[in-house]
Automatic annotation (TrEMBL):
NCBIfam families: ftsY. This is Signal recognition particle receptor FtsY. One of its GO terms (cellular component) is plasma membrane. Its EC number is 3.6.5.4. Part of the signal recognition particle protein translocation system, which is composed of SRP and FtsY. GO terms for biological process: SRP-dependent cotranslational protein targeting to membrane. It is a peripheral membrane protein. It is found in: Cell membrane; Cytoplasm. Pfam families: SRP54, SRP54_N. Involved in targeting and insertion of nascent membrane proteins into the cytoplasmic membrane. Acts as a receptor for the complex formed by the signal recognition particle (SRP) and the ribosome-nascent chain (RNC). It comes from the Bacteria.
Amino acid sequence: MGFFDRISEGLSRSRQKFTEQMNVLLDRGPNLDDDFWDDLEETLILADMGGSAASQVVENLRDEATRKALPDAYAVLDRLNDELASTFATTEADPFGGDAACVLFVGINGAGKTTTVGKLAKEGADAGRKVILGSADTFRAAAIEQLEEWSRRANVPIVERKRGSDPASVCYDTIERAEADGCDLVLIDTAGRLHTSDDLMRELQKVVNVVRKRSKAPVYTVLVIDATTGQNGLSQARVFDKALDLDGVIVTKLDGTAKGGIALAVSHELGLPIYKIGVGEGLGDLKDFDAHDFARALVGEFDEREAR
Ligand SMILES: Nc1nc2c(ncn2[C@@H]2O[C@H](COP(=O)(O)OP(=O)(O)OP(=O)(O)O)[C@@H](O)[C@H]2O)c(=O)[nH]1
């Protein structure tokens, strides 16, 4: 299955929900009155795209329509994909682009951090990079074993300490070993924690600070969000970003959720790029993020001529 088809299949539930709302909107005819714009904004919000992104998208389309570039609702919906795509935050710096990088994965319990680290280890090793894993999730014994298993699958080394060790010191050791062995991609898994737990967030700040001070390679702090948590993902992102000054986001479990719009909400509101998306549990189920493909998979393709 091709790349776009895989994302498209994953986002089919999000798309179905969106299309149903869109059909209700179009049943009223193609006039661009106030009700149309209000309903379009509501449709975007219902698709979990967040109030900030939804109002920006509607404002831009409304501006274009006023300039007569978009004469009716069919033309507006035909433009929607491009407008959504351009609402995602972008960046030049890509931790997985090939340059040396030290990447810390943070997020709530079960978001998919360990699985994502494992998939990235394999992807990096297959691309000929010298990868090393750090298991700074010293809280859950199973997490250490899980990461060990991924290190075997990807055939990359792992630095680990016994359960209960200080996570910051595991990071320190991982970076030392990476530098000694000439590794150019350091992937560090951290323990899942609720963003509402102040103590655990402070512990994570310490871990991030140690890594930022110690690593010679650029450090990226990446939030892993489970798409199925919907708007809660936006609350998580706000708190993690405030505490850690995030660099970007990876959105997992986009397969089978109707809440794929959360990727846009987080990226737009916090100005964070989406580095990758997870569309399944398997090794090959982590995809590069492409805003146009994502928007197309999220809302479907509206054919203006067909609708007329
Ligand atoms: N369907 C689906 N499942 C995923 C995806 N990514 C991860 N998972 C599953 O989500 C579950 C939790 O993943 P983990 O990687 O253990 O999550 P974690 O964030 O490391 O969890 P903690 O260590 O508790 O913080 C596992 O069953 C994974 O297989 C994805 O993109 N799609």
